Amino acid sequence: MSTSTLERPPAAASSPPGQRTPSPATRSLPRWAGVLGVFGVWFMVWLFTRGTDTLVLPGRDHTPLHESLTQFRDSIIANRDTNPVMQVTTAIAEVFRSTMDWLQRMVSTPNLPRPVPEIGWLGVTGFVTWAGFVLANWRIALLVAATFTSFGLFGYWTDAIDLLLVTLLAVSMGVLIGLPLAILIGTNRRADTAISWVLDLMQTMPTFVYLIPVVLFFGIGASGAVVCTLVYALPPMIRIAGHGIRTVSTETIEATESTGQSRWQRLTKVQLPLARKTIIVGLNQSIMAALSIATIASFIDGPGLGKPVLNGLIKGDVGAAVVPGLLIVAMAVMLDRTTTAASERSEITARGGGFDPRTRRILIVSGGVGALVLVWVSRYFPWAAEFPALALGGWVADLAGASVTWVTDTFGIAATALKDGVSAVLLNPLQAFLAESPWWLAAAGITALAFVLGRARAVVPTVVCLAGIWYFDLWHDAMITLNMTLVATVVVMALALVFGVWMARSRWMDLALRPVLDAGQTIPPFVYLIPVLALFGPTRFTAIVAGIVYAAPAAIKLVADGVKGVSPTTLEAARSTGSTTWQEITKVQLPMARGSLVLAANQGLLYVLAMAVIGGLVGAGALGYDVVLGFSRSEEWGKGMAAGITIVLLGVMIDRIARAAAEHDPVPKDPAKRTWWRPLGGA
């Protein structure tokens, strides 16, 4: 054999007819390499352009756009009597106001000339305890009884019942409006795309921003409180319930189609029953969101526990704010457990659990008679109509105040070190990179990242949102807020993955963490801001911690429910192949729960952004401060509204990039079909 034959390279493998042999030029690096490349180019340009064209708007300066927004608001106020929209909203507000007034006179406030409500505390407690047993079981009945009793023991019976009435009225309206919309987005992809933009707007618009139009169109008091609670509580119901309907197995749906079922039968007999648990999660999240806004609703004279919370914070009395805040948590836990247990009762009964049906009927009838007796007693005996005054609330308030003082004195130095360390290592460099980049460089860099992560599906909304942020003249503040939001969202998702997987794989961890998550999600933001503010002072780090505490519970629950929903058959198949626990989590559970992970990231991001304004109250500055300023001063209304819209645009932009990245089509297995824009590393 000659030397030339030995040195000759092997012939290229023949390709099937019509298929091009891939060349190295058509291959691309994985997406993570593309992200690093974008950051590398961005950083090199930043070194030479840092601090130029950052569009800083100093202090309380305005732009002509901000002034025109303020003038628009003033023109609506001047013509409110002749505006047809105002006439409709006034009529709706009157319905809410009269409904709340009737309910309050029935169970919480005196129905004059009667010095007490029509049904006193004993009758209300007896009736709801019986209802808890009817809807769920005896454990829920005991929980309901204990929760309602605690309202009176701590001296907040009227405020607690008022908050419960506002919440139930708003959530009931939310179910009536939200469930049909959830069905629509769960069965129609185009409707999902269109409605998601509206949901993002509702969920990311800072509460202080939409309080102004709520007051303008619906007034203050109970009507305004119901409307703002409804606006805030509706998106989780629609989004999460729609996700549950959309993720029903396609094989199951195809099987029903083969039997000749109509679309309505498929929806009512298959999709809704199979998505029931996820729908209940959406209902729970809606209730939690409604309760969490209690304090903010008190800014417009909304009834409920938010008023004593706000009064305590205004006076600087931590204990006085903590006690009603903890009662809000107790109410949230009660409602969460009741709705969950009610949804599971039919399954438990089908498996033969619970009381014998005949025994249960006897208990329901006898309990109903007992509840009616308690209602009668509460109408005619003063001791059963008005809860006796006790001093437990004051004792707990003093204990809470002393505890906060001890924590700040003990851990103040460590907290300062943590704040300074995180700021120096993470926050300051990232803020300098984003906020001190020229606006055109930051826009180009973000657009390039959107292209690398999500291709055209991410680029289009990114360009639109960036153009809107530039248009509203608050670019520099937007970049500072973006920095804090990204840091908080990354931490939230890290916590969600760790604790969500842990809860899904361990029943005792699920039982232990659920109440903690409910507490973190339902404690009014103003309440836990006080100890956080005492520990870390008025800085952006305080705002980030508050955002994490507020957003992490929802994300953790969604990850836990998604991972828990992975088919046991699939897990058994993985275990039979000898997969380790780590492989089982990373190769099976997390990939199969990707939809829930995307939803968790979406909800975490939106909750963090919703806290941006609260952060503005504790020294975070940027867009949050602009919104607060616009709410507190009428002449700053235009700038505050522009800041609120900018926050919404930030949320939509990041959400669309994340969704497009998660839903990006996987790489074709055929190497010949790989192109320079479709990376080898997969989606």
How would you portray this structure in words?
By secondary structure, the chain is mainly alpha-helical. The protein has a domain at 412-664: MetI-like (MetI-like fold), CATH 1.10.3720.10. The protein is 78% helix and 0% strand. It has helices at 3-7, 31-49, 64-78, 84-107, 121-135, 138-153, 157-187, 189-204, 207-218, 222-246, 250-258, 263-274, 276-292, 294-297, 306-315, 318-350, 357-380, 382-385, 392-435, 439-454, 456-471, 475-505, 507-522, 525-536, 540-564, 568-576, 581-592, 594-610, 612-616, 622-632, 637-663. The chain is globular, with a radius of gyration of 28 Å. 44% of the residues are buried.
Determine the N-to-C terminus distance: 48 Å
**If you compute it from the alpha carbons, what radius of gyration comes out, rounded to the nearest whole angstrom?**
28 Å
CATH class of the domain at 412-664: Mainly Alpha
Which percent band covers the strand fraction? under 5%
Task: Detail the topology: elements first, then pairings.
Elements: H1 3-7, H2 31-49, H3 64-78, H4 84-107, H5 121-135, H6 138-153, H7 157-187, H8 189-204, H9 207-218, H10 222-246, H11 250-258, H12 263-274, H13 276-292, H14 294-297, H15 306-315, H16 318-350, H17 357-380, H18 382-385, H19 392-435, H20 439-454, H21 456-471, H22 475-505, H23 507-522, H24 525-536, H25 540-564, H26 568-576, H27 581-592, H28 594-610, H29 612-616, H30 622-632, H31 637-663
Short description, anyone?
The chain is an all-alpha fold. Helices cover 78% and strands 0% of the residues. Helix 7 packs across helix 13 and helix 13 runs antiparallel to helix 16.
